[in-house]
């Protein structure tokens, strides 16, 4: 019977968190596992169980795409354009094809088509060694008619004029009556121009794949965030290339990060499949670090201008903004997102004042909380400037204006835990010493994301996302999903939910993820994976549990629905048996059940997305302009926390990325050649071990009431706040804002100079 | 990596003869050169490894008065050396101990650090041709993005000398020894660097086949101290944006001798005798150090993107002078 034919019964659930718990009514679909709420006692979920594949990763047993090898496998490499813009006039592959050992050479760009950026794909080769591939690339003749290019978006068509300070000089467009009136009655108004640079994803594992054909069946081992998406993409591409392709199977058992850059197979993914077909052998193609930095997308640059105003009572009553995105050649993806939750009382401009600017560079791709870190940096710093101008503590200003009750609690908790008032006062007092070389500052910022997952059904047709649970006769348990674990800890989500439902330990469950032979899940983007799949995983285990209970009931002579699974035992009243003994009743065929993703429950969820607040303390060296982050704190919720350690790790990772975005990271393109100058990890500066200060994460478990396990997405939210909190701390330290990321010594020295410091 | 012959010499003179051939290249730890060969940015027909000679060339030993640092001594050895424990040698320990990462320091050698190729992102790009080594017609950094480039002492090429160790060795007045065709020569360290650091000039003055075998740290008088400081954007694995090594001899609270050498601001490690002279006969004070720092950068000529460097460099000089007189 299909779930949609049943009438959903109403159920009362305790939702919320801390002192905010209340009872609300939800429509819970029949057949689903009984939903957990704020009163449910959980033993594995939310515990400090180790990451499911932690030992495999730490010991090197985990096999990433880069580690995959087959007998007779060939290597591959891509010829890339050395110019930023021009026409491909001639492409001669014959000499490369005739080289001994070269197994396949394919064109990736047609003659007559335009080269769009340095690194644009021209051709690809496969050969037994990478050196032979390089020799073959050098034998390819590619000729270009070079055209003028622009790689700096401030010189692109449509870019606004900036003065020497980097401020936009054009007057604001007409704000409309309401906004103009709001500004007119404000007590304090500030305005500023803010800028961020291009950040690359910088995943530890670069893009790469191994393609292997068996007749018309194609297996691809790929470092990807979207196993099912790239399966469709590749099967379409193979058909478009006129190849017999019966099936495509994607394998992504371990993925070394993606951060939004790995949603598509890309030119390299299509090339490796075509090369493997042409060479009639397995082929591996892995991008090097320079290719990874220059050809696989990025977080685009942003130029933003804000003006904001408070009234006598400290309400933010007016907010205005205009922005430009510094994009790649397609001129897309450069929008910004700001903390709207702080502006509920503000009059706003009605029409969106944003323009994406195209440059002759690698296009943007989604990157962890797309649009947010850049917009939050500018807007949160503007709000701190507003607070300073109005003589209000910046945290107090946020508490007064934030519309989300959950975050108000997070501000309170964070301020107490971080010692906000004491640290702010100590920093201010230390500043009194005119001869002090080091200044300290303390700042905070808010986080936000909205994702409670999806059911995977498009317009109500076809089966939705699934997951498989298997219980074997020997007591072993499998939890399987075809969705990928990009390093976020999805395998722990599989093990913890399954173990919780079956009343066993997390280590007793073996998780498998990333093979499209298992049921589908969403791409790992927008914080959707856990929120979408956790209810399915639990449901699969729930169904298996019912089957096992039936067998045990017969053996124990009790009713199946009286059996409780807990602490490794199946119990009913006075009688019980171990989980292992119960499994012996299963027989040679395992209990195997496929979970169903019911739609999110109807009813008023506690929180539509997730909140969060972060705090940072920095030290500014007034002699050298060098900024060091001294400590950070994140308060973060994500529904009911399924896997504590991976969740904390996600937030820590976001904070470390935030340090990089705030202080170090920027793609530097040479204006003359259009080529990236720092396309490596020596000059593209991601934080290293010594650059990461003591950081604390407090995860808050919140029952939302939207699904059987209340799991919400986590990847994006903490990314919003980190750079903003650091920039605010720098502003507090110097007393003058640095409105342009990254906050490098030259900008700090300029800000100190403008402040009239030493 | 293109095919090449890998030469494993048994003696220094074998190494010297092998390295003299056109297209041959000497390799110590290979921290940088192996990467550049893999990326085809450097092709050697013969790669002559010095590591087989490590027994002879990797020791640090007090030779009566001074200390001899073998060319193949690792940065980690220098940073932890008991023979360099004296405050007079602190600059050597500090500069070796801050370079790169623990993994690199355990492998990278003293000579490799001093003789490494400049880190300019134009001259190291396989796709761009610049005046360095006469590959192209102009210095691309001079008109391009030069945020990490020279502010002092440059001519037609604005690369900076990247060695952490070289300023410290120079400030201590070290000599270096080489071996060429069985002949050993000992010279003052400043002779290792070209007096005119032009684009076409090599970054060091060694002749083909000449092998740097040791640095000789001279004996230090009572009251001698040294220190090394650098500015860097990141603490983990970053290059200095400016660096300074200082050596002083203090008697009765007065500076009797002083030397000051800058790193990362010019194509060669830059001795600043005029600034050092200002310190002699004076009592240490912040005001004095600020003036000396200004003197050290008085002839700075910043480029389009590195106007911050003189100020940061002066701060590092001020800091190193405080450190060395503390």
What can you tell me about this protein's structure?
With about 750 residues, chain A is an alpha+beta fold. Helix content of chain A is about 30%, strand content about 25%. In chain A, the strands form 8 sheets. Chain A has a 7-stranded mixed β-sheet, with helices on both faces. In chain A, strands 9, 16, 17, 18 and 19 form a 5-stranded mixed β-sheet that branches. Chain B has a domain at about 225-325: 2-Layer Sandwich (Enolase-like, domain 1). Chain B is about 30% helix and about 20% strand. Chain B has helices at about 10-20, 35-40, 55, 75-80, 90-100, 100-105, 110-115, 140-145, 165-170, 275-280, 285-295, 310-325; strands at about 5, 25, 45-50, 60-65, 65-70, 175-180, 185-190, 210-215, 225-230, 240-250, 255-265, 270. Chain B has a 5-stranded antiparallel β-sheet. In chain B, helix 10 runs antiparallel to helix 11 (about 285-295) and helix 11 (about 285-295) packs across helix 12 (about 310-325). Chain B is globular. Chain B starts with a strand and ends with a helix. Classes of the chains: A alpha+beta (about 750), B alpha+beta (about 325).
């Amino acid at each position: 019977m299909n779930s949609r034919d049943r009438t959903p019964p109403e159920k009362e659930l305790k939702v919320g968190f801390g002192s905010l718990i209340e009872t609300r009514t939800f429509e819970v679909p029949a057949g689903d596992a009984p939903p957990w709420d704020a009163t449910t006692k959980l033993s594995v979920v939310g515990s400090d169980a180790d990451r499911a594949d932690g030992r495999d990763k730490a010991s090197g047993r985990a096999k990433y795409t880069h580690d995959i090898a087959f007998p007779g496998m060939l290597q591959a490499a891509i010829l890339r354009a050395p110019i930023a813009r021009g026409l491909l006039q001639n492409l001669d592959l014959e000499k490369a094809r005739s080289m001994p050992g070269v197994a396949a050479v394919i064109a990736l760009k047609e003659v007559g088509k335009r080269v769009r950026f340095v690194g644009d794909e021209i051709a690809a080769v496969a050969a037994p060694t990478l050196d032979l591939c390089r020799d073959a690339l050098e034998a390819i003749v590619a000729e270009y008619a070079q055209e003028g290019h622009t790689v700096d978006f401030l010189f692109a068509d449509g870019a606004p004029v900036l003065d020497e300070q980097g401020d936009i000089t054009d007057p604001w467009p007409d704000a409309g009556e309401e906004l103009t009136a709001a500004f007119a009655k404000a007590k304090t108004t500030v305005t500023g121009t803010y800028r961020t640079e291009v950040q690359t994803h910088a995943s530890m594992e670069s893009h790469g794949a191994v393609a292997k054909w068996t007749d018309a069946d194609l297996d691809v081992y790929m470092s990807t965030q979207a196993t099912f998406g790239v399966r469709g993409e590749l099967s379409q591409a193979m058909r478009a290339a006129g190849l017999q392709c019966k099936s495509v199977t994607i394998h992504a058992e371990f993925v070394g990060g993606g951060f939004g850059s790995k949603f598509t197979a890309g030119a390299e993914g299509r090339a490796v499949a075509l090369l493997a077909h042409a060479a009639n052998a397995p082929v591996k193609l892995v991008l090097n670090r320079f290719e990874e930095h220059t050809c696989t997308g990025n977080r685009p640059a942003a130029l933003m201008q804000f003006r904001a105003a408070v009234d006598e009572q400290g309400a933010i009553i007016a907010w205005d903004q205009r922005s430009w995105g510094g994009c790649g050649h397609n001129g897309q993806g450069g929008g910004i997102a700001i903390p709207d939750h702080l502006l509920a009382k503000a009059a706003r401009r009605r029409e969106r004042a944003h323009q994406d600017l195209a440059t002759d560079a690698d296009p943007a791709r989604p990157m962890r909380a797309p649009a947010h870190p850049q917009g939050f940096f500018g807007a949160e710093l503007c709000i701190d400037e507003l607070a300073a101008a109005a003589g209000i503590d910046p945290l107090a200003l946020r508490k007064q204006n934030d519309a989300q009750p959950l975050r108000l609690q997070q501000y309170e908790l964070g301020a107490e835990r971080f010692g906000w008032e004491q640290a702010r006062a100590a920093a201010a007092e230390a500043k009194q010493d005119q001869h002090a070389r080091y200044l300290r500052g303390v700042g905070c910022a808010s986080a936000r994301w909205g994702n409670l997952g999806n059911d995977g059904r498009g317009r109500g047709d076809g089966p939705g996302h699934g997951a498989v649970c298997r219980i074997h006769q020997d007591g072993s348990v499998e939890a399987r999903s075809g969705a990928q674990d990009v390093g976020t800890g999805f395998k722990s989500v599989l093990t913890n939910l399954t173990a919780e439902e079956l009343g066993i330990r997390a280590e007793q469950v073996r998780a498998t993820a990333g093979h499209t032979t298992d049921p589908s899940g969403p791409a790992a983007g927008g914080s959707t994976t856990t929120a979408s799949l956790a209810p399915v995983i639990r449901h699969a285990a729930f169904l298996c549990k019912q089957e096992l209970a039936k067998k045990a009931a017969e053996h124990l002579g009790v009713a199946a629905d009286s059996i409780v699974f807990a602490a490794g035992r199946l119990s009913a009243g006075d009688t019980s048996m171990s989980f292992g003994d119960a499994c012996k009743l299963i027989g040679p065929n395992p209990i195997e059940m496929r979970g169903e993703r019911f739609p999110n429950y109807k009813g008023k969820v506690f929180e539509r997305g997730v909140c969060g607040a972060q705090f940072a303390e920095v030290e500014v060296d007034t002699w050298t302009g060098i900024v060091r982050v001294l400590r950070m704190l994140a308060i973060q919720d994500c529904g009911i926390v399924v896997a504590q350690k991976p969740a904390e790790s996600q937030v820590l990772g976001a904070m470390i990325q935030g340090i990089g975005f705030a202080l170090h990271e920027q793609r530097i393109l040479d204006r003359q050649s259009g080529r990236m100058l720092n396309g490596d990890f020596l000059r593209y500066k991601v934080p290293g071990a010594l650059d990461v200060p003591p950081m604390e994460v407090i995860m808050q478990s919140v029952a939302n009431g939207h699904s059987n396990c209340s799991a919400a997405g986590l990847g994006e939210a903490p990314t919003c706040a980190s750079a903003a909190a650091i920039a605010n701390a720098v502003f507090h330290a110097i007393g003058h804002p640095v409105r342009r990321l990254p906050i490098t010594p030259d900008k700090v020295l300029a800000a100190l100079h403008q402040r009239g410091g030493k | 990596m293109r095919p090449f012959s890998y030469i494993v010499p048994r003696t220094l003179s074998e190494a010297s003869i092998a390295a003299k051939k056109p297209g041959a290249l000497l390799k110590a730890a290979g921290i940088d050169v192996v990467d550049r060969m893999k990326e085809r940015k450097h092709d050697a027909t013969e790669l002559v490894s010095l590591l087989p000679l490590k027994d002879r060339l990797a020791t640090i030993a007090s030779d009566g008065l001074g200390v001899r640092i073998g060319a193949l001594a690792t940065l980690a050895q220098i940073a932890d050396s008991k023979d360099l424990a004296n405050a007079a040698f602190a600059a050597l320990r500090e500069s070796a101990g801050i370079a790169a990462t623990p993994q690199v320091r355990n492998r990278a050698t003293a000579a490799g650090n001093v003789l490494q190729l400049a880190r300019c992102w134009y001259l190291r790009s396989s796709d761009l041709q610049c005046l360095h080594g006469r590959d192209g017609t102009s210095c691309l950094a001079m008109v391009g993005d030069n945020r990490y480039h020279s502010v002092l002492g440059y001519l037609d090429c604005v690369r900076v000398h990247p060695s952490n160790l070289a300023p410290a060795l120079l400030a201590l007045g070290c000599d270096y020894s080489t071996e060429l065709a069985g002949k050993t020569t000992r010279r003052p360290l400043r002779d290792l660097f070209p007096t005119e650091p032009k684009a076409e000039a090599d970054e060091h003055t060694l002749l083909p086949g000449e092998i740097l075998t040791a640095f000789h740290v001279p004996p230090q008088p009572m009251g001698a101290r040294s220190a090394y400081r650098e500015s860097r954007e990141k603490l983990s694995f970053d290059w200095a944006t400016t660096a300074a090594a200082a050596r002083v001899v203090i008697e009765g609270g007065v500076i009797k001798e002083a030397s000051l050498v800058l790193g990362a601001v010019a194509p060669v490690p830059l001795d600043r005798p005029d600034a050092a002279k200002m310190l002699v006969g004076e009592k240490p004070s912040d005001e004095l150090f600020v003036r000396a720092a200004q003197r050290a950068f008085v002839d700075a000529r910043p480029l389009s993107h590195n106007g911050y460097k003189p100020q940061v460099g002066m701060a590092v000089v001020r800091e190193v002078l405080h450190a060395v007189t503390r």
